[in-house]
Fold each of these.
Amino acid sequence: MSSTDWLESLLAERTRTFVDEFGSFYAWLEGSYGGETLLLWMRAALLEAVLPQLPTWFKGRIVLGLDISEDHKAPFARALHWANPRRVLVVGPGEGLGTAYPGRKEVAEGEWVPWDDPRQARQLEVALRPEFGYQELRAYAPWEAPAPAPLPTMEGPRVGSVGWERGIPTYGLGLVGLDRNLEALLRVWRMR
């Protein structure tokens, strides 16, 4: 049993959890009354590093969303449906807050080009189970947003435009210093 499996089992014992059709695992962490819903979306392998950095007290709800894809849009869009968040933080490597993404597309396996390149992005077929799969167009639109807090900045997540297109403020959050940067954001968003 991997550490992620063990942690998912522990979360399932203590919180409301759910696994969707894309294999994404969700855990609803309930805070005190007031506040909003924040989705913390991350690759499943990051859970062990993220969990100890989460606040022990907050208002509202933090939904942990564990992605088993390679940062694909389709599972992320579905996570927005299931978690119904007011805001999203996509956790990844680095330090700081991801406030923009320049846009890129993959025209051949492993060949990434700028968003404005005239070549067509490749279509990736993902088969999760014999009865369920999805297609991922490997084109990730540019986006940019003002920083909600005075934090160091880094490149934002490539799936960020999916949230912004739905009117959901979506940022990246680096794993390094996640605890203090998350604390600063929760204060700005009145979830502390």
Note: The chain is about 25% helix and 40% strand.
Amino acid sequence: MKKALFLLIFPVLTVSILAEDFKFPNRNLYIEGTAEIAAHQAFFMGNFKMEASALGFTVVEDKEEAAYTFRFADQSYDDDWDPSIKFIILISLILNEGERELLSFGWPYAELDDMYEYNQYVFFRAVVLIPGISEDDFTGLVMEDNTWRDKWLYFRASFDYPIVFNVLKGDGLYDGVAVYSGDIRNPAWVNILDHKINALPGLTAGVEVQFLSFVSLEVNFQLGLGDTTKTRFTELNMSAGAQLKFPFKLFGNFMIEPYGAFVYPIAKSSEFKKFPMFLLGGGVQVCVKGGKSGAFFVDVNYIFPLPVGNLGEVITYNPFAAEPVLGVVKPDEIHYNRFSIGIGVGYKFGLLNRK
């Protein structure tokens, strides 16, 4: 971001002034600031007060009670070298006695969320020059590394456990719930069917591109073990999918990504006579920092066929049609409405920092 080009540090005018010369202790600090956008002013005021308290300062409401003022001014900015930069925050440290400016510098940034990583450092750069306060007061101060959630590219792998619901429809069934032989008005034989609810494990591998700090797109391949209409492992279900995600980077070690999902079935069980051409849905990924370049996550989702007309139903063959001793078992097809609730756990590894 070429921050060095904007670092305008003026000579420290009073570094030799002793702390006991002041009316108030150096640990009393007054913070004031302005911003073109009200949300930015509230963000920086709250964060700088938090950083001051964490580092042992007493933030006072009356300027007259403090020896120093920490002042900021946030404004829009155009950078010819880096068009992504939109704002700059100007920082000043003021000696209240005589209103003398001890230090001033600017820090450019692209989005407000970017400053979560740098607020502590910006504050430290200013107040460390207060007489009587040295680098030793900040031993152990480490800038939090949040680059794990700001990568251009992620590779994802997860273990999934979808619960698939096939809800029986009454189309052609005796009394809406049973297959039969003979006349539907007076059947010679009936067998009552039920809804099918199955949970079978699967795997997902994918690639995610975070093209904006708050939007990313993932494409993936999903493999399900066994068919999802009865519990067996003789066949595989395969699908291609896409997820449009909206990362919320609210805390340093956490990220929440709600998303919309699209699924295109590639291979399905031979039990299905008809299966939806594609499925829609959504979910959320809760990510926890897992090293400098990746994250562990839990994924919860809800997937369903497009609920228009009969597009959302699946059709299977009548499982009793091949039983000659029963005669002709009707109907030929069994209709279900289908949806799934899934949970998965996995890890994604990132490459190429966005900043």
Note: Residues 1-23 have pLDDT under 50 and may be disordered.
Amino acid sequence: MNSRRKRLIVGSIGIAYYLAVATILLISFILHFEDYEPFGYFLISVMLLSAIPDVFLYIVLKGYKNPRKLGHIVWAGLTITTCIALYSIKEVDISIICIAWGIIDILRGLDELYTVFFDGKFEKREIPDMIIAFIDIILGVILIIKLDDGLNVHLVAATATLFVFAIRLIVEVSLGLIREKKDAKNRE
């Protein structure tokens, strides 16, 4: 399977994944899921779900060959380890989850900024990544400072970010399909 085909398949899976997680977050926000007892474990699950795509992409797209992707797997590994530790707490407090999630968001934002500026060149196509990185850092700080009060803002922003990721992947996959059709036509 060629690299372009693999990227299209991974992109399609990513679209479905981001849309599913964003929809779950949106439904939980609309239904005021935070009023229920297992809300802490739901939040830990959302944190865990945010790390899975990075691990998947790192392995499938051979991110280990690109040194600027090293931070992604470190961040994802830290997130997974934190989630496992939080799952092991019998009665986890929402404040602890907020602090952990805030720290993880700040680290992810810093990693995204590093990735954007890694090569010393800044390209226009990296503007969405830079904006999302700044939003991650700001929301992480808000989540740490405001704790439970900042959680609703964080969940709304996380939902919006996931929808943005899905839309971006739809555009990338669509452009990849268009390029593939043009290449096929040129080969004929």
Note: The mean pLDDT is 77.
Amino acid sequence: MLARDVAINSKDVAIDKDILKVIMNRIIKDINDVTTIKSLVQTNIENCKKIITQIEKSMLSMEFSQHYLIKFLADGTLTKEDLLAFYSGEEIKDRFRPIEKEIKALGA
């Protein structure tokens, strides 16, 4: 019965190739637009990661410098060990490593 209803109610479809071509070109254009948007969003995500990375590095550096400035203002001087630690900045690098891993994991 279902096949009979389909056969009775089916219509002959005349396909206008020019109209089909216009529709297909529009669909292709839309797909290209979405692909471009996706690429732009991915680029923005990477740029935002770089911005966050730089902000975090700068914050750590400012906190590090603040620590030594407070010590200098309190003591009136810094020891050779303090100056070496300040110059090398190893503490900043050590503190930044886990932050960097978190940032890289964003959006992954």
Note: The mean pLDDT is 91.
